[in-house]
Amino acid sequence: MRRQLFFLAALAVCLMAVSACSSAYYGAMEKVGVHKRDIMVDRVEVARDAQSEAQEQFKSALEQFGTVVRLKDSDLKRAYDKLNGEYEDSQAAAKNVSARIGKIEDVSEALFSEWQQELGEYQSQELRRESETRLRETKARYRQMIGSMRQAEKSMEPVLRIFHDNVLFLKHNLNAQAIGSLRGEFDGLREEIARLTEKMNQAIAESNRFIAGIKE
Hints:
This protein has helices at 2-31, 36-68, 76-118, 125-172, 176-214. The chain is an all-alpha fold. It folds into two domains: 1-34; 36-214. Helix 2 packs antiparallel against helix 5 (176-214), helix 3 (76-118) runs antiparallel to helix 4 and helix 4 runs antiparallel to helix 5 (176-214). The model is unreliable at 1-17 (pLDDT under 50).
């Protein structure tokens, strides 16, 4: 029980430290004329590009997987090394996408909180209502975009699981029978990557729409 309490307390301290660091960063950027909205747009663009890069990486991994299932016995060790390399690159690309989405969520929380708080500073009710409407619309577009990003993120999980299982299987079974087993997995993997690509394209399109809307 004491260990659990200690862990929770340490976690709370870490979260507060991260929050404080983010606040300090946003404050410092505002002093040089870079506002949270600018940072948000930049992070959406970076996340969009990370998704596009991840999409290409998964396609490359699928291509390598297709090459492996057509190899001869003498090529198996080399095939494993290449396929494992593609899996590790795909895993890294997926982690990068997740990290980029997290950064968007961090700055959006700060931006929307500040925006909501500053509504109370207006003397003009008309301007306040206009700003409030703009905030509501921006939040709605944001929720749609981030939801699409998270769906695309989830679509990477089954692909990585399939890759991991097959790389692991090939590692311990470097023989013709192993290649035969992998052939049976190829169609399922291709279908999962097709779904991933579709989700990624949707998320990228939503990102572009959000960027265009917030720049209006």
